[in-house]
Amino acid sequence: MIEFELNGTPVAFHGASDTPLLWAIRDHFRLKGSKFGCGAGLCGACTMHLDDVAVRTCVLPVASVAGKRVTTIEGLTDNHELHPLQQAWVDHNVPQCGYCQSGQIMSAAALLSTTPNPSVADINNALAGNICRCGCYPRIKEAILSVAALTVTDETRAELAYDATAEAPSS
Amino acid sequence: MTVRNVSRRGFLQMGAATGGGLIIGLTLPGCSFSGALPINRDAGAFIPHAFLQITPDNAITFYCPSDEMGQGIRTGLATIIGEELDVHPHNMTVTSAGSHKDYANPEFGIQLTGGSNAIRAFWGPLRQTGANTRALLLEAAALDLGVPASQLATDNGHVVTDGQRLPYGDFVSTAAGMAMPKQSALKANTAFKYIGSEFTRVDALAKSTGTAQFGIDADIPDMVFAVVARAPVAGARVSAVDSDAALAMPGVRHIVPISSGIAVVADAYWQAKKAADALVIRWEDKPLKRVNSAQVRKDLDTALERGEDLEASSQGDVDVGFDVADSIVEADYFAPFLAHAPLEPVNATLHIRGDTADLWTGVQSIQGAQGLVERITGLPRGNIRVHNLYLGGGFGRRATLTHIVEVTEIAMAVNEPVQLLWSREDDIRHGVYRPASLMRLKAGVSNDGRVIAWQAQRSGGNITTDTLTTMLPAMLPNLPNALINGLSGLAKYVFSQWTVDPSSVEGLHETYDFDNYRVSHATVDHGLPLTFWRSVGHSYTAFAVESMMDELADRAGMNPLTFRLANTRNRPRMHGVLARAKRATDEMVVAEGHHLGIAAHNSFHTDVVEIAEVSVESGDIRVHKVTCVADVGTAVNPDIVRAQLEGAVMFGLTAALYGRIDLKNGEVQQSNFHDYPILRMDQAPAVDVILVNSGGDPTGIGEPGVPPLAPAIANAVFRATGQRLRELPLTLA
C-alpha cells in the first residue's frame, strides 16, 4: 500500500508499486483531467505537481510519491475557483483540441509559483517539455505573460484603486 | 459505384468537388441511420429538428453535427445557427450530435468531418434552419401574445415586445404544435451580430480546467482495459503466439486473438500494457517486409523514368510553351511518409448489453463508427448509441477507424465493458500515413515573368484507395466482405491504371494562371496504409510548386511576390492576398542576418500567403516569425481563424524541420516523440495573421495554413544560404 496526499486529501493506493502515478490517478482514483500522451516523459500531457514541482507522471512509479503531496489539475485551486492562469487561458482563447492544456497549465502554474514575473526565456524553459500538437504556443506564452502582469497589478491594487477615483486628466 | 458510366473527367470533378479527394460520400446515398433522433428529450422540451432543443425554462441545446478536434467547429456552427436563431453561442449548450442521417455533412452526404468544409458546407443549411426556427418562435409568440408577428423582435434568446423580453422557452409548447416555415428570410450580412465578432470558444473553459471529456476519459463502472499487440509490418497476421507468460501476469483477465493482432485485457491499463509487451508473437510474411525507405524513393523515381504516369489534367499546349520560353527550370522535390501524432492516441470504450451497445470515442466519423459496430455485432443500427467526445487532435488520423473494429472484436470476445487505448508507439508505428511523394516539375518562363509552360508529375501512393478500403465496411455495414473486397480492388485498379486519384495531385497547378500545363501521375503502392493528413495532397504539392515558383522568380530576376502577382491576374482572390502580402513585406523591418521566404497556395477554397523570417545560425534553421495573409471570405469567428493559422504554422513547421517516417524491412522506424519530434515552445515562431476579406461566404480554414509553410521556409533558407533544399524535412548540406 502506498499512502500520499492527493489534492489535499490523504489517499492509499493498493495496486502494483511500479504503476506510473498517471495510471494510478486516472484508473484507480478516476481523476481524468491529467492526460496520457507518450508514456515516456516526452510530451508533458500528464504533468502534475509533486510537492509543488511539475513532474511527468507517466514515468513516475507511484511508489516514489509515498508521503508526498500530489496535485492534479482538479486540485489546482481550492473550491473550484479558477486559477488566474485558467482565466487567462479562456480570455486568450488558448485551447484548440485542448488535450495538452492540463499539462501546460500545471507546468505554467509551477513556474509562476517560483517565478511570478518570468521572462519569455523562463517560459520557454519551463514549458519546453509540454508538446501542443495544435500549436497553441504563441497564445500560451501570451496567457502566462498576462498573468505575470496581473501579479504586478495585484501588488499595486491599492494604488490603482486610488487612481480610479482620481479626477480624469484633462486633455 | 457505376464507374463505367462516369466520364473520366466527370469522375475527377466529383473528387475535386469534395475538396479533399473524398469521393465516397457522393457514391453512397441512403446508408446512414434514419430512425429516431439520438436526442434525450428534457421535460416539456421542443425539438423542432435534429439541431436544437429548447426547454420551457429556455435552456437551448445545439447538437453539433461536426466533430470538435480543436478547429473550433462547435463554436463556429453554433455561431452560424445562433446568428439566424438570434441566440449567442455562449447562451447555448453545444454538444456533439449522435449518429443520424440529419447530421450528414451536406457536401459529403455522410457524417464525416474533414476536408476543411464544415463551416462552408453547413453555412447555408444551418442559417436557414436557424432562421426558420426563429420565425416559428415569433409566430408562436404572436399567437400567445395576440399581437402580429411583425410587431415582435428578438434579442439573444428572447422575444422582445413593448420593451419586454420574454424567453423563447415561454413559447415552445405553442410552437411545438405549429408547422415549421421553410424559407424564412435570412439576415443581410451587414446585420450580423455574432458572425464576425470575437468571443471565446464555447469549449475554452472546459479545456482550461481539465473537465473537457475526451474519448480516453470515458469511465464506465467495471470496465476492463485492453491493449493490442500489432504486427510490426502493417497488415501481417499472427502465425503463432505464446501467451503463457502474459496470461500469468497480475490483473490479466483475457488474451484474445483479433483481426489486427493479439489483445490483452486486464483490470488496469498498466497491467494490460506490461502483459502485451510479454507476448511472443510470430507474424506472417508480407511483401511490405522487403521495403526500405531508400527503395521507396527509388521506386517513385523509376515510375516516372519509365513514363508510367497517367495524365490527370491539362490545358493549352505545354510543348509549344517550352519551345517559346526564355528559360526552363527542372527540379525534383520529395516529401516523406508522415504520421499525424495527435496528442491523444486513438481509443474507444464499448459496452455491449444484450441487444444494445454504447460506444464512447472521439472520431471524425461517428456514422462510420456506428456502422462498424453494427457490422461486427449484428445489432440493429438503432440499438447502437455512439457518444462522440472531444477529439484530442484529429488532423485526418481519426477518420480511420481500425480501433473501433478492434474494440468491438474484443468486447464481443470478453463480454465485459472494454476500454481500448493505443500507446504512442502504437500510434507512430501502426498508424495510417501521409504518402511519400516525388514531384518532378519542369517550367518555362518568359523574361517578363510569365509562366508559359508547366509540367508537373507526381509519383506515390493514393489515399483514396486505402480510404475506401477502410470506409466501405463502415459506411455499408450490410455489404458482404467479398463485395467490399471487390470494390476495394476495383478502386485500386481504377486509380492506378485508368484515372488519377484527385487527392494525389491536388495543388499541382490550381493556384496560378498557367495557360499551358500538364499534370500527370504514377501510382506506386508499397502497401503501407495511407490516409488524409492535414491538407492532404497539398501538404506535398505546395512544397514543390512554391519552391519552383521561387526558382522561376529568380530566373526572371523578379521579386517573388511581384512574380506571383504577375501569374495570378485571372485569380482575383489570390491576387488580392498577394498584393496585401506585398504591402506587408514592404513595411517589414527585417533584422540583420534574417531573410524572408514567401509561398502562396490555394487549398480548400482559401487563399493563403505565408512570409517566413528565417536565419541560419551554426547550421540550424531558425524561424523567427511567420506572417500569414489569408482570404477565408467571411470569417465566422476571426479569432478562431487566426488560431487555426497559428496552429497550421506550427504543424507545418514540425513537418518542414523534423517530420519523417522511415521504413526498414517494412517496419516503421520511429516510435515516440524522441525520434518523431514535434515542435516545442522554445522553437515556436511568432505568428502574425492578416485577414483579407474579399467578401463572400466562408471557405476552409482548418488546413489551408499548412501547405505554404514548408516552401516559405525553404525559400528563406535559399536567401540565407544559396542552397535550394528540395527534400523534406529540410536539411542543410
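qc> The first strand of chain A starts at residue 2 and ends at 6.
qc> done
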